[in-house]
Amino acid sequence: MSTPDSQPGPAAPRGRGDSDDQAANLQPLAGHVLPHTAAEDVLGVLTGTFMAALGLYLLEQSEAVSGGTAGLALLLTFGTPLNLGALFFLVNVPFFGLAMWRKGWRFTLRTALSVGVVSVFAAVCEQFMPVPDMNPVFGVFAGNVLIGVALLIVFRHGSSLGGFNILALIAQEQFNLRGGYVQMSLDVTVILLAFTVLTPENVLLSAAGAVIMNLILAFNHRPGRYRA
């Protein structure tokens, strides 16, 4: 026979603090970020480089340009017999030294491989995906969206697509500047050069596309946001 003292009393109400403690236990430790595995990096870079090559190909078929070394390569297609893939690799070669100096050999090697893969994918697109009649407005919009997302992917996996992307990353990491805005200022120069080979209408369309691509970078690639 139990006495009043031995009977269990009513359960104590659970306060909000208890729920918060349990929720906190389910969250990752502050500052703890799992790095990408090698397989994730390879798949990410392959995905990003293919998207970039497809975007460049759409711009080429639209008779438009982009910013950075990609834009320089597109401009050179109007005056040289080399294809887009070869030109994209060649115009990026001088920037590999800058990458080695400021970012180290690992980043430089990843960037060189990424640039090389973009060049190969661009040649594949030209060979196996003929576009007889590309609407230039759609081509410029889709091409720049693809390139912008591709840059985010390769940045996220510790690489870049060379050229002005390297300068943008250095400016962001060393001077805490928005990489997208730095890239945009450099791209303006390339767009202005396009007046020498393109109609004014195509240059203005190219400029609008470059703004789209750089806004994607500016709003999605900020200092301190990515840690893996």
Structure description:
- The chain is mostly helical.
- It has one domain (38-220).
- Helix content is 69%, strand content 0%.
- It contains nine helices and no strands.
- Helix 2 runs antiparallel to helix 6 (136-156) and helix 4 (84-103) runs antiparallel to helix 5 (105-128).
- The longest helix has 24 residues, at 38-61.
Helix and strand arrangement:
Elements: H1 16-26, H2 38-61, H3 68-76, H4 84-103, H5 105-128, H6 136-156, H7 164-175, H8 179-193, H9 200-220
Number of strands: 0
Overall form = globular
Reported for the largest beta sheet, the result is: none
Q: Identify low-pLDDT runs.
A: 26-30
> What average pLDDT do the residues reach?
82
As a percent range, the share of helical residues equals 55-70%
How much of the sequence is in beta strands? under 5%
Task: Count up the helices.
Answer: 9
Radius of gyration: 24 Å
Please give the domain count: 1
What string, H for helix and E for strand, traces the elements in order? HHHHHHHHH
Overall structural class, as computed from helix and strand content, comes to mainly alpha
